[in-house]
Specification:
By secondary structure, the chain is α/β, with parallel strands linked by helices. It has a domain at 77-257: 3-Layer(aba) Sandwich (Rossmann fold). Helix content is 52%, strand content 13%. It contains ten helices and eight strands. The strands form three sheets. A four-stranded parallel β-sheet has the order 3-4-5-8. It has a two-stranded parallel ribbon with strand order 1-2. Helix 4 (95-123) packs parallel to helix 5 (145-164). The chain is globular, with a radius of gyration of 18 Å. The two termini are 21 Å apart.
């Protein structure tokens, strides 16, 4: 579990622990990981390993996989959840900030999947959830320029990976939540903006995670899993109407909930 210290990551940990899974928790904040591990061990009597790493660093994914191998840990469920939003227009941050963002949101996901999927295939049992976003299914808008692009990549990556593993015992799903109550918008600095949005557009993290787990565990899995009727309606409309119209709607709607610093 990457990005396990808060938000959707912590919700994934609690629900997987409730199903009896032993957990490997990975994120940057070791203190929060250890606090969550203690909670899960006490409430669910499951073993939890804490590996604090910054997956935006180029050697972090390899280091994580070597730790798993050295400790004899086999991964049955991989949840690629770590992520954040990089505020501003494309030329605002330094390139180094974009490079770290791409490393975390795209490269680390691909590398962890590449290194961990072969043993799943050998055992003919495994599950991979790539936490994408509704932003990957709708036209992009100004601000957080790489966010929607990275999430769209995860969707296409998951679709191809699911087809490759159709008969290899590995289920793959891209979970595409919309607005979800979590720390994401606090970290991105957009809490004041998104709090103006109507409550019916929001989902609780537990409901999103329950849908994501149901999607990947079912046979066949939901390869592109969009939780909530609001999000599914938006995704459907964006597919049905002409692309120029969709971009126009996204541009107008974004004025209500998105500044240059906001992201779904």
């Amino acid at each position: 579990m990457t990005g396990a210290s808060a938000g959707l990551g912590a919700a994934f940990c609690r629900q997987l622990a409730g199903k009896g899974y032993k957990l490997v928790l990975t994120a940057r904040r070791e203190d929060r990981l250890r606090e969550l591990a203690r909670e899960l061990e006490q409430s669910h009597q499951v073993e939890c390993r804490v590996i604090a790493l910054d997956l935006s660093l180029p050697d972090a994914a390899l280091s994580l996989c070597k730790r798993l191998e050295n400790e004899g840990l086999e991964i049955e469920v991989l949840v690629n959840n770590a992520g954040y939003g990089l505020a501003g227009h494309y030329t605002d941050p330094r390139w180094e900030s974009h490079a770290h963002f791409i490393q975390l949101m795209v490269t680390a996901v691909c590398e962890l999947t590449w290194r961990l999927i072969a043993p799943m295939q050998s055992r003919r049992k495994g599950y991979i959830i790539n936490v994408s976003s509704l932003a990957g299914l709708v036209p992009g808008s100004a601000g957080h320029t790489l966010y929607a692009a990275s999430k769209a990549f995860l969707i296409r990556f998951s679709e191809s990976l699911a087809l490759e593993n159709l008969h290899r015992g590995v289920n793959v799903s891209a979970l595409c939540p919309g607005f979800t109550w979590s720390e994401f918008h606090d970290v991105a600095g957009t809490r004041e903006i998104v709090n103006r949005m109507p409550s019916w557009m929001w989902m609780e993290a537990d409901a999103v995670v329950a849908f994501g787990l149901d999607s990947v565990f079912r046979d066949p899995p939901r390869v592109v899993a969009v939780p909530g009727w609001v999000n599914r309606t938006i995704a459907l409309l964006m597919r049905l109407i002409p692309s120029p119209w969709a971009r126009g709607i996204a541009r107008r709607m974004s004025r209500h909930f998105r500044s240059q610093n906001a992201a779904v």
